[in-house]
Amino acid sequence: MYEFRHVTISRSPLGFQRRCLDVPTLTTCLLLFVLLFAPLEPTVGLSQEPASPGTPTPTPNQSERELFWEGDRLSDWTVSEFGSQREVKQLEGGIEIQAGYPLSGIQSTAKEWPRHDYEIEWEFQRVEGNDFPCCLTFPVGDSHCSVVIGGWGGTLVGLSCIEGQDAAHNDTAKHLVFENGKWYRARLRVQGEQIRCWIDDKEVISRDIQGQKLSVRNEVQLSRPLGICSFETTARIRSFRIYRLGSQEK
Questions:
Q1: CA 84, 86, 90: angle at the middle one, nearest 5?
Q2: Does domain 62-245 have CATH number 1.10.1740.10?
């Protein structure tokens, strides 16, 4: 999938033909020919190499973070009883969530959670399937929210829900390409009045939530307060960490 940047010249074949007829000069047609057949930039420049297990996403002011919880073992989680879930198993260095019909997932066994000024880092992989390998539900103050990665046919990224609008219908929605069998690094930050998310060190969400009503879709209520699920997709999770943030972290 490619992202078409803001240009004044149509890059569709029909657009190319129409513009050449409108300005029948050799120079213009040659320029259009170059633009039409020039390589397009991928939707997002995610890393082409698999992430190494245990390697944290680089962040500023690393000393300002304090490790709060690790979730690399199956014993750190319970299987979410969606009624459609399938087997969840321990792998070397991570956890595999087998495809549910539609949902399968896990919920943290921890009893307490930070609700603001914290950061979550993890790595995920879509093993098989064509929908989201990772819908992470997390606490935000007295509410909860989810970040959907690779949903609605495999490409949607966004927060769900803001003012009752899920990730496909609010202004955080964007479409990125995720390859099956490839590891991606993700980082989510809840700090002040903002939620931010990075994938392979590229910021994909930055949303002011001041005065906004946050919630989760009914289907993933069982993921609260913190859990991960996949939709008709076998997924793997590893290197899951939660950090408290110091007041100077930006």
A1: 150
A2: no
